[in-house]
Target: Lipopolysaccharide biosynthesis protein
Amino acid sequence: MVQIGLRLFRQITLANTSVTASMQTLLMNMGVVLLNMLTGMLIARGLGADGRGVHAAILLWPQFLAFLLNMGIHSAALYESKRQQPGKDLFTGALLLSSGASCAAMGIGYVLLPMILHHYDSATIRYAQYMLFVIPMLHLSFLVQAMLRSMNRFGLYNLTRISVPLLTAIGLGLCLWLDAFRPSYTVLSYFLPYAPIFLYLGYRMYRQLPGTLRGLRASIRKLTSYGMRCSGHEMLGTASLYADQLLVAFLLSPSALGLYVVAVSLARMVNIFSNSIIMVLFPKASGLAKAEVVRMTLTAFRLNVLVMLVGGSVIILLAPWFLSLLYGADFAGAVTVFRLLVLEVMLTESGMVLAQAFMALNLPGRVSWLQAIGFGTSLPLMWWWIQGYGIHGAALGLLCAAVVKWLYLIVQYRRCFGVGLKQYGFQKEDYVAVKRLLRKYRVKGVSS
Model:
């Protein structure tokens, strides 16, 4: 029995089929979520609500600006790598474009942070500015992971994803052991792991890629063309993802931000399954015929909804016990916000699974409009409601925007693909596919 289990584990972690890649990513997502829960517990219990807010304010800005100003370069690298064999020219072109984007992000952040974090002390603001220098390393990590996905190396890709939170947990443990558990050190525990992992992988990847730099100029043109078209939805998606936390940091106290960040981070554990699908669906569907892309996406969507409904319902019911157990009594006031955010995550992430069809069919503009509509809806609602209802207003604004985005997707799927409402419901073939998948792994696990 042990041998069968080990063989099945090796098969799941080393194979590169689309189903196995999804299984790999799901398993690693579960590991990442557990590690993030562990680090979140350490931060919340070690720093309290106020300290958790200061930690979040410093950590938030490098991540936000890195995602906001990546200019679609990494999605473009993934897309172009699926269309043709990736070479040194493509990787180098993406690296040069990422470096320019990093410089712009650091400059903008350095100027804006003193104005945005005006109610934090000067030491916190200055340290937040220093942390902007990690943005180039974050951009390198995005590029390396995109290239690994394009080459179907999901085993190594998932290993990089779990290595960072694992090293972060070790770093936080060292902070506790050395009696240095303060925001300035805890933030370093989150950022330092990126350097050894992605500098090494970036160097190895460049050495192993074929070709020369002769096509560098053409590669930069291709990357810029696709990147500019999908940068809109990526920038708006990032703005939508972080706007609530940024507004809470700007309008409310550090303790309110601490409560809200805990609720957000815990609510996003619901998207384990959908993230696994999204990470695999885009590279696997790129280059396929339109009908096959739509069929594959709808099947993935229906399975995702089923899993999220079951998991989300359980989490919503257990919310009071969950928050108190993991983070302590100081964070019990985040229960209602947490429940609202779980509903928002379920709607938003299911919609993003559907959006992968547009990305795979070279229609990133549709996704840009999706994000623009969501951001345009949520931003004014959150601005008004946070001032009136505190952190609950932020959650309500996001939930309303998720509903509006869903309506837009239904209309676009009808216009572009002829998909009716019945096709979103669970189909008979979905049951058959699940049974076939379970039977396949049972047979392979025994026969191996």
About this structure: The chain has a mean pLDDT of 80. Residues 245 and 261 are 7 Å apart (CA to CA).
